[in-house]
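idk why but the lab printer keeps eating my pages so im just putting this in chat instead. protein + adenosine monophosphate:
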Amino acid sequence: MNPLPLCPYNVLIIGSGAREHALAWKILQSNRLNRLYVAPGNAGTANIATNISINPLDFEAVKNTIVQHQIKMLVVGPEEPIVKGITDYLTHQPETKDCLIIAPTSEGAKLEGSKSWAKQFMLKYNIPTAKYHIVTKETLKEGKEFLKTFQPPYVLKADGLAAGKGVLIIHDYHEACKELEYMLHGKFGKASETVVLEQFLKGLECSYFILTDGEKYVILPEAKDYKRIGEGDTGLNTGGMGAISPVPFINNELRKKIYNHIVHRTVYGLLHEKINYKGFIFIGLLISNNEPYVIEYNVRLGDPETEVILPRMKTDLLELFENLFNGNIHKCKLDIIPDHSICVVAASKGYPLEYEKGKTINGLNDISSLVFHAGTSIKDNQIVTNGGRVLVVNALGSTLKEAKKRVYDDIQKISFENMYYRSDIGFEF
Ligand code: AMP
Ligand code: GLY
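predcted complex ->
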Protein backbone atom coordinates (compact mmCIF):
# COMPACT_ATOMS: atom_id res chain seq x y z
CA MET A 1 0.00 0.00 0.00
CA ASN A 2 1.34 3.45 -0.93
CA PRO A 3 1.83 5.90 1.94
CA LEU A 4 -1.12 8.26 2.28
CA PRO A 5 -0.63 11.86 1.21
CA LEU A 6 -0.07 14.14 4.17
CA CYS A 7 -3.16 15.81 5.56
CA PRO A 8 -4.61 18.40 5.81
CA TYR A 9 -6.06 17.68 2.40
CA ASN A 10 -7.33 19.79 -0.43
CA VAL A 11 -10.59 18.05 -1.28
CA LEU A 12 -12.68 18.23 -4.45
CA ILE A 13 -16.33 17.14 -4.46
CA ILE A 14 -17.90 16.35 -7.84
CA GLY A 15 -21.58 17.18 -8.30
CA SER A 16 -24.11 19.97 -7.96
CA GLY A 17 -26.99 18.75 -5.83
CA ALA A 18 -28.09 18.92 -2.22
CA ARG A 19 -26.18 15.68 -1.58
CA GLU A 20 -22.96 17.45 -2.57
CA HIS A 21 -23.85 20.52 -0.49
CA ALA A 22 -24.43 18.23 2.50
CA LEU A 23 -21.09 16.48 1.85
CA ALA A 24 -19.36 19.87 1.66
CA TRP A 25 -21.03 21.02 4.91
CA LYS A 26 -19.89 17.84 6.67
CA ILE A 27 -16.34 17.82 5.26
CA LEU A 28 -15.90 21.45 6.34
CA GLN A 29 -16.15 20.25 9.94
CA SER A 30 -13.08 18.05 9.54
CA ASN A 31 -9.76 19.10 11.01
CA ARG A 32 -8.13 17.13 8.19
CA LEU A 33 -9.33 19.66 5.62
CA ASN A 34 -7.17 22.34 4.07
CA ARG A 35 -9.19 23.70 1.13
CA LEU A 36 -12.53 22.57 -0.24
CA TYR A 37 -13.64 22.75 -3.88
CA VAL A 38 -16.90 21.67 -5.51
CA ALA A 39 -17.34 21.09 -9.25
CA PRO A 40 -19.60 22.45 -10.55
CA GLY A 41 -21.51 23.05 -7.28
CA ASN A 42 -24.45 25.40 -6.71
CA ALA A 43 -25.21 28.64 -4.84
CA GLY A 44 -25.10 26.78 -1.51
CA THR A 45 -21.66 25.28 -2.06
CA ALA A 46 -20.39 28.64 -3.39
CA ASN A 47 -21.15 30.03 0.04
CA ILE A 48 -18.97 27.54 1.94
CA ALA A 49 -16.39 26.32 -0.61
CA THR A 50 -14.89 27.28 -3.96
CA ASN A 51 -16.99 26.26 -6.95
CA ILE A 52 -15.18 25.20 -10.11
CA SER A 53 -17.17 25.43 -13.27
CA ILE A 54 -16.35 22.21 -15.11
CA ASN A 55 -18.41 19.35 -16.46
CA PRO A 56 -17.96 16.25 -14.25
CA LEU A 57 -18.00 14.09 -17.38
CA ASP A 58 -15.02 15.96 -18.83
CA PHE A 59 -12.42 13.80 -17.10
CA GLU A 60 -9.50 15.76 -18.52
CA ALA A 61 -10.91 18.96 -16.99
CA VAL A 62 -11.26 17.11 -13.66
CA LYS A 63 -7.64 15.97 -13.95
CA ASN A 64 -6.47 19.52 -14.66
CA THR A 65 -8.42 20.81 -11.65
CA ILE A 66 -6.80 18.19 -9.41
CA VAL A 67 -3.36 19.22 -10.63
CA GLN A 68 -4.01 22.96 -10.44
CA HIS A 69 -5.43 22.91 -6.92
CA GLN A 70 -3.23 20.11 -5.56
CA ILE A 71 -6.26 18.01 -4.68
CA LYS A 72 -5.41 15.00 -2.53
CA MET A 73 -8.91 13.60 -2.14
CA LEU A 74 -11.74 13.41 -4.68
CA VAL A 75 -15.30 12.61 -3.60
CA VAL A 76 -17.62 11.77 -6.50
CA GLY A 77 -21.31 12.41 -5.75
CA PRO A 78 -23.39 11.33 -8.79
CA GLU A 79 -23.36 7.95 -10.55
CA GLU A 80 -22.80 9.03 -14.14
CA PRO A 81 -19.09 9.93 -13.93
CA ILE A 82 -18.51 6.82 -11.77
CA VAL A 83 -20.21 4.44 -14.19
CA LYS A 84 -18.43 6.15 -17.11
CA GLY A 85 -15.07 5.44 -15.47
CA ILE A 86 -13.79 8.60 -13.76
CA THR A 87 -11.85 6.52 -11.22
CA ASP A 88 -10.25 4.31 -13.88
CA TYR A 89 -9.25 7.39 -15.91
CA LEU A 90 -7.68 9.32 -13.03
CA THR A 91 -5.81 6.38 -11.54
CA HIS A 92 -4.19 5.76 -14.93
CA GLN A 93 -2.88 9.32 -15.32
CA PRO A 94 0.59 9.91 -13.84
CA GLU A 95 -0.47 13.35 -12.51
CA THR A 96 -3.50 12.05 -10.58
CA LYS A 97 -2.67 8.45 -9.74
CA ASP A 98 -1.97 9.24 -6.07
CA CYS A 99 -5.19 11.19 -5.48
CA LEU A 100 -7.47 9.32 -3.05
CA ILE A 101 -10.72 8.75 -4.95
CA ILE A 102 -13.92 7.99 -3.08
CA ALA A 103 -15.73 6.16 -5.89
CA PRO A 104 -15.35 2.66 -7.34
CA THR A 105 -13.83 1.80 -10.69
CA SER A 106 -16.21 1.12 -13.60
CA GLU A 107 -15.99 -2.61 -12.82
CA GLY A 108 -17.50 -2.07 -9.35
CA ALA A 109 -19.89 0.53 -10.76
CA LYS A 110 -21.63 -2.25 -12.71
CA LEU A 111 -23.60 -2.80 -9.51
CA GLU A 112 -25.54 0.31 -10.60
CA GLY A 113 -24.60 0.63 -14.27
CA SER A 114 -25.93 -2.78 -15.31
CA LYS A 115 -29.00 -4.19 -13.58
CA SER A 116 -28.51 -7.56 -15.30
CA TRP A 117 -24.93 -7.74 -14.00
CA ALA A 118 -26.15 -6.83 -10.51
CA LYS A 119 -28.87 -9.50 -10.60
CA GLN A 120 -26.35 -12.16 -11.64
CA PHE A 121 -24.02 -11.00 -8.88
CA MET A 122 -26.84 -11.35 -6.33
CA LEU A 123 -27.72 -14.81 -7.61
CA LYS A 124 -24.09 -15.93 -7.44
CA TYR A 125 -23.62 -14.70 -3.86
CA ASN A 126 -27.01 -15.80 -2.59
CA ILE A 127 -28.20 -12.26 -1.87
CA PRO A 128 -32.00 -12.15 -1.55
CA THR A 129 -33.63 -10.33 -4.47
CA ALA A 130 -36.77 -10.63 -6.62
CA LYS A 131 -36.89 -13.45 -9.20
CA TYR A 132 -35.88 -12.19 -12.62
CA HIS A 133 -35.26 -12.89 -16.29
CA ILE A 134 -32.92 -11.05 -18.65
CA VAL A 135 -34.25 -10.21 -22.14
CA THR A 136 -32.67 -8.87 -25.34
CA LYS A 137 -34.20 -8.36 -28.81
CA GLU A 138 -33.17 -11.91 -29.72
CA THR A 139 -35.03 -13.40 -26.76
CA LEU A 140 -38.14 -11.18 -26.84
CA LYS A 141 -40.50 -14.11 -27.42
CA GLU A 142 -39.06 -16.02 -24.49
CA GLY A 143 -39.33 -12.84 -22.36
CA LYS A 144 -43.05 -12.50 -23.12
CA GLU A 145 -43.57 -16.14 -22.12
CA PHE A 146 -41.60 -15.56 -18.95
CA LEU A 147 -43.79 -12.59 -18.00
CA LYS A 148 -46.75 -15.00 -17.92
CA THR A 149 -45.12 -16.83 -15.02
CA PHE A 150 -45.44 -13.71 -12.83
CA GLN A 151 -48.54 -12.30 -11.21
CA PRO A 152 -49.21 -8.68 -12.24
CA PRO A 153 -48.02 -5.98 -11.83
CA TYR A 154 -45.03 -6.56 -14.10
CA VAL A 155 -41.69 -4.90 -13.38
CA LEU A 156 -39.54 -3.97 -16.41
CA LYS A 157 -36.10 -2.47 -15.84
CA ALA A 158 -33.73 -0.96 -18.38
CA ASP A 159 -30.33 -2.56 -17.86
CA GLY A 160 -28.30 0.68 -17.96
CA LEU A 161 -28.55 4.17 -16.49
CA ALA A 162 -31.73 5.93 -17.58
CA ALA A 163 -31.74 9.05 -15.39
CA GLY A 164 -33.93 7.33 -12.79
CA LYS A 165 -36.71 6.67 -15.34
CA GLY A 166 -35.77 3.16 -16.45
CA VAL A 167 -38.16 1.18 -14.23
CA LEU A 168 -41.73 0.57 -15.43
CA ILE A 169 -44.41 -1.09 -13.32
CA ILE A 170 -47.34 -2.19 -15.48
CA HIS A 171 -50.57 -3.93 -14.51
CA ASP A 172 -51.74 -5.30 -17.85
CA TYR A 173 -49.91 -8.20 -19.52
CA HIS A 174 -50.37 -6.97 -23.11
CA GLU A 175 -49.30 -3.46 -22.15
CA ALA A 176 -46.21 -4.93 -20.47
CA CYS A 177 -45.34 -6.88 -23.66
CA LYS A 178 -45.73 -3.71 -25.74
CA GLU A 179 -43.51 -1.70 -23.39
CA LEU A 180 -40.94 -4.49 -23.37
CA GLU A 181 -40.72 -4.22 -27.15
CA TYR A 182 -40.43 -0.41 -27.01
CA MET A 183 -37.67 -0.69 -24.44
CA LEU A 184 -35.69 -3.22 -26.46
CA HIS A 185 -36.07 -0.97 -29.52
CA GLY A 186 -34.54 2.06 -27.83
CA LYS A 187 -37.14 3.66 -25.53
CA PHE A 188 -34.24 4.47 -23.19
CA GLY A 189 -31.54 4.35 -25.87
CA LYS A 190 -28.74 1.86 -25.36
CA ALA A 191 -29.69 1.55 -21.67
CA SER A 192 -32.75 -0.57 -22.52
CA GLU A 193 -31.24 -2.80 -25.23
CA THR A 194 -31.22 -5.31 -22.40
CA VAL A 195 -34.19 -5.44 -20.02
CA VAL A 196 -34.54 -7.17 -16.66
CA LEU A 197 -38.03 -8.54 -15.97
CA GLU A 198 -38.66 -8.84 -12.28
CA GLN A 199 -41.18 -10.36 -9.92
CA PHE A 200 -43.12 -7.58 -8.16
CA LEU A 201 -42.50 -7.55 -4.42
CA LYS A 202 -44.96 -5.95 -2.04
CA GLY A 203 -43.61 -4.29 1.06
CA LEU A 204 -41.85 -1.32 2.60
CA GLU A 205 -38.79 0.33 1.11
CA CYS A 206 -35.71 1.47 2.95
CA SER A 207 -32.19 2.62 1.96
CA TYR A 208 -28.97 1.28 3.48
CA PHE A 209 -25.51 2.75 2.96
CA ILE A 210 -22.11 1.26 3.50
CA LEU A 211 -18.64 2.64 3.02
CA THR A 212 -16.25 -0.08 1.90
CA ASP A 213 -12.67 -0.63 0.80
CA GLY A 214 -13.80 -3.71 -1.11
CA GLU A 215 -13.02 -6.04 1.78
CA LYS A 216 -14.11 -4.37 5.04
CA TYR A 217 -16.85 -1.86 5.62
CA VAL A 218 -18.78 0.38 7.98
CA ILE A 219 -22.56 0.67 7.91
CA LEU A 220 -24.17 4.10 8.00
CA PRO A 221 -27.58 4.80 9.54
CA GLU A 222 -30.52 3.66 7.40
CA ALA A 223 -32.95 6.11 5.77
CA LYS A 224 -36.23 6.10 3.90
CA ASP A 225 -36.96 8.44 1.02
CA TYR A 226 -40.30 9.49 -0.45
CA LYS A 227 -40.02 9.13 -4.20
CA ARG A 228 -43.45 10.19 -5.47
CA ILE A 229 -44.27 13.80 -6.24
CA GLY A 230 -47.72 13.76 -4.57
CA GLU A 231 -48.99 13.53 -1.01
CA GLY A 232 -49.63 10.02 0.26
CA ASP A 233 -47.07 8.59 -2.20
CA THR A 234 -49.04 9.32 -5.36
CA GLY A 235 -48.16 10.64 -8.81
CA LEU A 236 -44.93 10.51 -10.77
CA ASN A 237 -41.62 9.21 -9.48
CA THR A 238 -39.00 11.84 -8.65
CA GLY A 239 -35.42 11.75 -7.41
CA GLY A 240 -36.92 11.96 -3.90
CA MET A 241 -39.10 14.58 -2.20
CA GLY A 242 -37.98 14.03 1.38
CA ALA A 243 -36.45 11.49 3.72
CA ILE A 244 -36.28 10.33 7.32
CA SER A 245 -33.62 8.56 9.39
CA PRO A 246 -33.84 6.32 11.40
CA VAL A 247 -36.61 4.22 9.85
CA PRO A 248 -39.19 3.17 12.45
CA PHE A 249 -39.99 -0.24 10.91
CA ILE A 250 -36.36 -1.42 10.93
CA ASN A 251 -35.92 -3.43 14.13
CA ASN A 252 -32.90 -5.33 15.40
CA GLU A 253 -34.08 -8.67 13.98
CA LEU A 254 -34.37 -7.16 10.50
CA ARG A 255 -31.11 -5.29 10.91
CA LYS A 256 -29.35 -8.59 11.63
CA LYS A 257 -30.79 -10.16 8.46
CA ILE A 258 -29.79 -7.11 6.42
CA TYR A 259 -26.22 -7.23 7.75
CA ASN A 260 -25.77 -11.00 7.40
CA HIS A 261 -27.71 -11.82 4.24
CA ILE A 262 -27.13 -8.66 2.26
CA VAL A 263 -24.32 -6.34 3.39
CA HIS A 264 -21.82 -9.06 4.29
CA ARG A 265 -22.50 -11.12 1.16
CA THR A 266 -22.30 -8.04 -1.08
CA VAL A 267 -18.83 -7.08 0.13
CA TYR A 268 -17.73 -10.73 0.11
CA GLY A 269 -18.89 -10.91 -3.52
CA LEU A 270 -16.85 -7.85 -4.50
CA LEU A 271 -13.78 -9.30 -2.82
CA HIS A 272 -14.29 -12.69 -4.44
CA GLU A 273 -14.71 -11.04 -7.86
CA LYS A 274 -11.43 -9.16 -7.18
CA ILE A 275 -13.14 -5.82 -7.73
CA ASN A 276 -11.26 -2.79 -6.47
CA TYR A 277 -14.02 -0.89 -4.70
CA LYS A 278 -13.39 2.16 -2.55
CA GLY A 279 -16.55 4.08 -1.91
CA PHE A 280 -20.18 3.98 -0.92
CA ILE A 281 -22.72 1.32 -1.75
CA PHE A 282 -26.36 2.35 -1.50
CA ILE A 283 -28.54 -0.71 -1.11
CA GLY A 284 -32.20 -0.12 -1.96
CA LEU A 285 -34.18 -2.65 0.07
CA LEU A 286 -37.72 -3.85 0.08
CA ILE A 287 -38.95 -5.54 3.26
CA SER A 288 -41.57 -8.14 2.42
CA ASN A 289 -43.02 -10.47 5.09
CA ASN A 290 -40.26 -9.40 7.45
CA GLU A 291 -37.56 -10.47 4.96
CA PRO A 292 -35.24 -7.95 3.26
CA TYR A 293 -34.71 -8.09 -0.54
CA VAL A 294 -32.36 -5.99 -2.66
CA ILE A 295 -34.32 -3.88 -5.15
CA GLU A 296 -31.28 -2.06 -6.50
CA TYR A 297 -27.68 -1.15 -5.83
CA ASN A 298 -26.26 2.32 -6.36
CA VAL A 299 -22.56 3.10 -6.20
CA ARG A 300 -22.95 6.46 -4.47
CA LEU A 301 -24.86 8.11 -1.65
CA GLY A 302 -28.59 8.76 -2.05
CA ASP A 303 -30.18 12.13 -2.54
CA PRO A 304 -32.07 13.18 -0.34
CA GLU A 305 -31.02 10.35 2.03
CA THR A 306 -27.57 11.94 2.52
CA GLU A 307 -29.25 15.09 3.78
CA VAL A 308 -30.81 13.18 6.70
CA ILE A 309 -27.90 10.84 7.41
CA LEU A 310 -24.97 13.25 7.58
CA PRO A 311 -26.62 15.54 10.18
CA ARG A 312 -26.83 12.45 12.46
CA MET A 313 -23.14 11.57 12.04
CA LYS A 314 -20.62 13.06 14.42
CA THR A 315 -17.74 11.04 12.95
CA ASP A 316 -15.15 12.95 10.91
CA LEU A 317 -15.91 12.06 7.28
CA LEU A 318 -12.37 12.69 5.99
CA GLU A 319 -10.99 10.41 8.69
CA LEU A 320 -13.39 7.70 7.49
CA PHE A 321 -12.34 8.25 3.87
CA GLU A 322 -8.67 8.11 4.84
CA ASN A 323 -9.26 4.73 6.48
CA LEU A 324 -10.46 3.32 3.16
CA PHE A 325 -6.86 3.54 2.01
CA ASN A 326 -4.99 2.23 5.04
CA GLY A 327 -6.99 -0.95 5.59
CA ASN A 328 -8.64 0.21 8.80
CA ILE A 329 -12.16 1.13 7.72
CA HIS A 330 -13.71 -1.70 9.79
CA LYS A 331 -12.05 -0.35 12.94
CA CYS A 332 -13.83 3.00 12.64
CA LYS A 333 -16.59 3.39 15.16
CA LEU A 334 -19.33 5.58 13.79
CA ASP A 335 -20.62 8.14 16.25
CA ILE A 336 -24.32 8.50 15.41
CA ILE A 337 -26.67 10.71 17.36
CA PRO A 338 -29.95 8.96 18.22
CA ASP A 339 -32.09 11.92 17.12
CA HIS A 340 -34.66 11.65 14.37
CA SER A 341 -33.65 13.44 11.21
CA ILE A 342 -36.09 14.57 8.52
CA CYS A 343 -35.71 16.51 5.32
CA VAL A 344 -38.23 18.04 2.94
CA VAL A 345 -37.47 19.04 -0.65
CA ALA A 346 -38.75 22.35 -2.05
CA ALA A 347 -39.25 21.89 -5.80
CA SER A 348 -40.05 24.04 -8.83
CA LYS A 349 -43.51 23.97 -10.36
CA GLY A 350 -43.73 21.26 -12.98
CA TYR A 351 -41.05 18.95 -11.54
CA PRO A 352 -40.43 16.06 -12.33
CA LEU A 353 -41.52 17.10 -15.85
CA GLU A 354 -40.68 20.51 -17.42
CA TYR A 355 -40.10 23.06 -14.68
CA GLU A 356 -39.59 26.77 -14.26
CA LYS A 357 -36.22 28.37 -13.47
CA GLY A 358 -34.79 31.74 -12.47
CA LYS A 359 -37.19 32.50 -9.57
CA THR A 360 -35.78 34.56 -6.71
CA ILE A 361 -35.58 32.64 -3.43
CA ASN A 362 -36.52 34.53 -0.26
CA GLY A 363 -36.40 33.77 3.44
CA LEU A 364 -33.21 31.72 3.55
CA ASN A 365 -31.80 33.81 6.38
CA ASP A 366 -34.93 33.51 8.50
CA ILE A 367 -34.68 29.87 9.47
CA SER A 368 -32.69 27.89 12.00
CA SER A 369 -32.87 24.50 10.19
CA LEU A 370 -30.10 23.34 7.90
CA VAL A 371 -30.76 24.17 4.26
CA PHE A 372 -28.92 22.28 1.55
CA HIS A 373 -29.10 23.75 -1.93
CA ALA A 374 -29.87 21.58 -4.97
CA GLY A 375 -30.90 23.49 -8.14
CA THR A 376 -29.84 27.03 -7.22
CA SER A 377 -27.55 29.60 -8.78
CA ILE A 378 -26.56 33.21 -8.25
CA LYS A 379 -27.90 35.89 -10.61
CA ASP A 380 -27.37 39.61 -10.03
CA ASN A 381 -26.26 38.86 -6.46
CA GLN A 382 -29.48 37.01 -5.71
CA ILE A 383 -30.05 33.29 -5.16
CA VAL A 384 -32.42 31.98 -7.83
CA THR A 385 -33.92 28.61 -8.71
CA ASN A 386 -32.03 26.62 -11.32
CA GLY A 387 -33.40 23.08 -11.13
CA GLY A 388 -36.37 20.81 -10.39
CA ARG A 389 -35.40 20.07 -6.83
CA VAL A 390 -34.30 23.46 -5.46
CA LEU A 391 -33.64 23.26 -1.71
CA VAL A 392 -33.64 20.58 0.95
CA VAL A 393 -34.49 21.62 4.51
CA ASN A 394 -33.33 19.37 7.34
CA ALA A 395 -34.29 19.28 11.01
CA LEU A 396 -33.47 17.01 13.93
CA GLY A 397 -35.64 16.20 16.94
CA SER A 398 -35.67 13.79 19.83
CA THR A 399 -38.83 12.32 18.27
CA LEU A 400 -39.92 12.19 14.64
CA LYS A 401 -42.92 14.34 15.58
CA GLU A 402 -40.67 17.06 16.97
CA ALA A 403 -38.37 16.93 13.92
CA LYS A 404 -41.40 17.13 11.61
CA LYS A 405 -42.76 20.18 13.40
CA ARG A 406 -39.38 21.93 13.14
CA VAL A 407 -38.87 21.22 9.47
CA TYR A 408 -42.39 22.28 8.46
CA ASP A 409 -42.31 25.42 10.63
CA ASP A 410 -39.11 26.42 8.86
CA ILE A 411 -39.80 25.48 5.26
CA GLN A 412 -42.84 27.79 5.33
CA LYS A 413 -40.53 30.74 5.87
CA ILE A 414 -38.80 30.10 2.54
CA SER A 415 -40.49 31.18 -0.66
CA PHE A 416 -40.08 31.39 -4.41
CA GLU A 417 -42.79 31.67 -7.04
CA ASN A 418 -44.78 28.43 -7.32
CA MET A 419 -42.64 26.60 -4.75
CA TYR A 420 -43.96 23.08 -4.09
CA TYR A 421 -43.21 20.62 -1.29
CA ARG A 422 -44.90 17.57 0.12
CA SER A 423 -46.42 18.33 3.49
CA ASP A 424 -46.59 14.67 4.54
CA ILE A 425 -42.98 13.44 4.74
CA GLY A 426 -42.88 10.81 7.50
CA PHE A 427 -46.71 10.68 7.36
CA GLU A 428 -47.13 7.00 8.10
CA PHE A 429 -45.25 7.06 11.42
P1 AMP B 1 -35.18 1.16 -8.94
O1 AMP B 1 -34.78 2.22 -9.92
O2 AMP B 1 -34.66 -0.21 -9.25
O3 AMP B 1 -35.00 1.59 -7.52
O4 AMP B 1 -36.77 1.08 -9.03
C1 AMP B 1 -37.58 2.21 -8.84
C2 AMP B 1 -38.72 1.88 -7.94
O5 AMP B 1 -39.51 0.84 -8.51
C3 AMP B 1 -38.30 1.33 -6.58
O6 AMP B 1 -38.02 2.34 -5.68
C4 AMP B 1 -39.51 0.53 -6.19
O7 AMP B 1 -40.50 1.38 -5.65
C5 AMP B 1 -40.02 0.00 -7.48
N1 AMP B 1 -39.55 -1.38 -7.72
C6 AMP B 1 -38.43 -1.75 -8.35
N2 AMP B 1 -38.32 -3.09 -8.39
C7 AMP B 1 -39.41 -3.58 -7.78
C8 AMP B 1 -39.88 -4.90 -7.49
N3 AMP B 1 -39.21 -5.98 -7.89
N4 AMP B 1 -41.03 -5.03 -6.82
C9 AMP B 1 -41.72 -3.94 -6.42
N5 AMP B 1 -41.35 -2.68 -6.66
C10 AMP B 1 -40.20 -2.49 -7.34
N1 GLY C 1 -33.15 8.91 -3.42
C1 GLY C 1 -32.83 7.89 -4.32
C2 GLY C 1 -31.56 8.03 -5.02
O1 GLY C 1 -30.69 8.81 -4.66
O2 GLY C 1 -31.37 7.32 -6.01
